[in-house]
Structures are given as C-alpha cells and as structure tokens.
C-alpha cells in the first residue's frame, strides 16, 4: 500500500517512519525538508511511505504527496494542545481536496509518553473528527518513544494494503 504521513512540524512523522521502518527511536531528528520517501516491508506487506514536511512553508505540498495514496496518516503532538486549532484547520483543509475524497484517514495522537497528553476523546473533539463523513476515520493515542500502540497502528496500515 502507498500511504502519506502529514501533520504539523515536530509532531513526530519522521520518528514514526523511522520506528516502523527500522525500530529506531532518536531524540535528534532533523526537521524534514520537503519530503522523504521510504519503503518499509512488514511481513507480506510493503508500505510505500511519503513522509511530508510539516513546517508552514511546506504545507501546500501535502496535497500533491497525498494524491493517489491508499491511506492518509495525520500525526498530532498530543501534548501540544496549543497547536490543536492549527492542526484541525490544516487537516480539514487537506480533506476538502476533491481528489482525496474517500481516502481512509488514521489520526495518531503521538507523544502519549508525556503525562499532559490529550486523550483520543479530546482529539476527536478538538480536531473535529466526528464531522468527517466521507471516509473511514480512526484515531489512536500512541508514542514513538515508548512504541505504545504501534502494534494496532501497524495492523490498521496492513488492513489497508493490497
Ligand atoms: N516524547 C516524545 N517525543 C517524540 C515522540 N515522537 C517524536 N518525538 C520528538 O519530537 C521531535 C520531532 O520529531 P520529528 O519526527 O522530526 O517530527 P516531524 O513531524 O517529522 O517534523 P517535520 O519533519 O518538521 O514536519 C523530535 O525531537 C522527536 O524525538 C514521542 O512519541 N514522544
Ligand atoms: Mg519530519
């Protein structure tokens, strides 16, 4: 399957791809410039992953790298509640693109190793996930640092593979 990983800067997109790709967690990840492309094999499934940059100047590129994928992964830093409004805006802006209609969405509330993180219930409310009607939506709380819930995230991705 081909997937795109988007979300605001520093939410943990590259960490996610590194952890599922090589099991490698690091505190020092450089901010992505434009995008990284990576193929990850998990059992019988090969994931082709576009890891797209989240800084404001790169956000207009998200649509281009999401075009034609089998699933969208939107990563949120669930401990950085001040950015939820911006994350919500950027997410819904992306989903409004006509060519992305129907593409399944996985929202990851990352960094749940940080005690003040928002719950899945908070994320559903603050990112207005219940307003999304034109595609399957899932939302999990997880941590790339502790690898919490990585198993269900991988299962979700494998289920979208063909
Ligand atoms: N505590 C904690 N820190 C994390 C976690 N995931 C990522 N980080 C840290 O968050 C910072 C940003 O991670 P990146 O993976 O570079 O974020 P990004 O979304 O790829 O950022 P851009 O490429 O700029 O869009 C790094 O210092 C990571 O080590 C997590 O689950 N817990
Ligand atoms: Mg990155």
UniProtKB/TrEMBL annotation:
Pfam families tied to this protein: Arf (PF00025)
Binding site for GTP: 7-14, 54, 110-113
Example of a GO biological process term: protein transport
Binding residues annotated for Mg(2+), in chain numbering: 14, 32
Record keywords: GTP-binding, Magnesium, Metal-binding, Nucleotide-binding, Signal
GO molecular function: GTP binding; GTPase activity; metal ion binding
SUPFAM superfamilies, sorted: P-loop containing nucleoside triphosphate hydrolases
CDD domains: Arl10_like (cd04159)
Entry GO terms, CC: lytic vacuole membrane
Family per record: Belongs to the small GTPase superfamily. Arf family.
Protein name: Arl8a protein
Species per Swiss-Prot/TrEMBL record: Suillus discolor
Lineage start: Eukaryota, Fungi, Dikarya, Basidiomycota, Agaricomycotina
């Amino acid at each position: 399957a081909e997937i795109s990983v988007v979300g605001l800067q520093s939410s943990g997109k590259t960490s996610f791809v590194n952890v599922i790709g090589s099991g490698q967690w690091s505190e020092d990840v450089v901010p992505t410039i434009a995008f990284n492309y990576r193929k990850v094999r998990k059992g019988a499934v090969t994931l082709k992953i576009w890891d797209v940059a989240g800084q404001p100047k790169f956000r207009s590129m998200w649509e281009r790298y999401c075009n034609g994928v089998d699933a969208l992964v939107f990563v949120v830093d669930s401990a950085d509640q001040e950015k939820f409004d911006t994350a919500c805006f950027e997410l819904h802006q992306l989903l409004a693109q006509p060519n992305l209609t129907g593409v399944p969405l996985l929202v990851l509330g990352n960094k749940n190793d940080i005690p003040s993180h928002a719950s899945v219930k908070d994320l559903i409310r603050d990112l207005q996930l219940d307003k999304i009607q034109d595609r399957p939506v899932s939302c999990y709380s997880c941590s790339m640092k502790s690898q919490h819930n990585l198993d269900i995230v991988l299962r979700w991705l494998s289920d979208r593979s063909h």
